[in-house]
Design a protein that fits this description.
The protein has 173 residues and is of the alpha/beta class. It is built from 5 helices and 5 strands, in the order ααβββαβαβα. It has a 5-stranded mixed beta sheet, with helices on both faces. 27% of the residues are buried.
């Protein structure tokens, strides 16, 4: 019995049962868009989805996430530096690696920090930051986003199990 055979026996790894395995940031992104769709849809977006223990910063075009960075909350100074660093890294990645325009829209969801911190971040990166409604980043949000993905298994998403799943049967297609 190979490791791949053992993994195939785990419920949820067969293609025809409609389950997928995906990273938490993708699920968080889906949950975030459920609560606050991107406005406007055009352009390169950066969304900070934050909570008491950390967060995720997602670079996207339309509803499609292109890259993300997970953030841990240590001290206030390190947190602010991490938020600013994530902006610069993802902006650079968008422009130089993906040949996209610079980040045009920035939004933040789940922030409990004072407005002053986000105002300082907006001033240092030269762009306005829009506050959007939605829950803070935590395990419940990841689970909610994964559940939303299971509602429509035909919708395109990132499936980490695809390389070890059996091909779909002709009858199921």
């Amino acid at each position: 019995v190979t490791a791949a055979d053992m993994v195939r026996r785990i419920p949820g790894f067969a293609i025809d049962d409609g389950h997928r395995f995906e990273p938490g940031p993708w699920a968080v992104w889906r949950a975030s868009l459920y609560h606050a769709p991107l406005r406007p849809k055009r352009g390169t977006h950066l969304r900070y989805i934050v909570g008491p223990s950390g967060g995720v910063v997602v670079l996207a075009v339309g509803d499609r996430p292109l890259a993300w960075q997970v953030l841990a909350r240590e001290s206030d100074k390190e947190w602010f530096d991490g938020l600013l660093h994530a902006f610069h890294i993802l902006d650079l990645f968008a422009v130089r690696r993906l040949n996209l325009p610079a980040i045009a829209h920035i939004s933040v969801q789940g922030a409990t920090e004072a407005e002053g911190e986000w105002d300082a971040l907006a001033k240092s990166n030269g762009r306005a930051i829009q506050r959007v409604p939605g829950p803070p980043y935590d395990a419940h949000m990841v689970a909610f986003g994964a559940a939303l993905g299971a509602l429509d298994p035909t919708k395109e998403t990132l499936n980490l199990a695809k390389s070890i799943q059996d091909p779909p049967r002709v009858l199921s297609m």
